Amino acid sequence: MRIKAVQGDITTQDVDAIVNAANSSLLGGGGVDGAIHRAAGPALLEACRELRRTTYPDGLPVGSSAVTPGFELPARWVIHTVGPNWHAGERSTAMLASCFTTSLERAVEVGATSIAFPAVSGGVYGWDMDEVARVAVASARAWQSGADDSWEPGHRRPTGIELVRFVLFSADALAAFEHRLAE
């Protein structure tokens, strides 16, 4: 599994799945969430409404992930995850890490071999970008190696995921992720 960081627009990534930094309502919002909803078209909102009606009537919990089709996006799937909000006192790095690991699990479930992540919780949710980068990169590496205890230690997890790409909006965010990837 290759792990990379690039600066760009997550809605244009040629990958099997993109991750949406969603809010718990799943009904769209600003930032990455709004951009993904706009690019995917109105069918994405309808799919999210169906998830709320059937599976998540109280909203998607922080640290969890759910999948919808990508509709008008280049990506076949959108994996929605709700990051912790620093401003609301949600400061658990374990919850932030769960956003990345549960998204990877959902990607495997739908047969994705490539996935693109934004800097979950690194925007309006107020987390320090270097901390987001540290948690994101460490989570992807631990998940790949099975260090999360769900796979035999010392062996690589047979996932089918070949590429994890962190797609960052700003040069500063990219620098934070590149620094963590170089460690």
Automatic annotation (TrEMBL):
Pfam families from the UniProt entry: Macro
Cited InterPro entries: Macro_dom, Macro_dom-like
Domain Macro residue range list: 1-183
PROSITE patterns with a match to the protein in the record: MACRO
Protein name in UniProt: O-acetyl-ADP-ribose deacetylase
Organism per entry: Cellulomonas rhizosphaerae
Lineage: Bacteria, Bacillati, Actinomycetota, Actinomycetes, Micrococcales
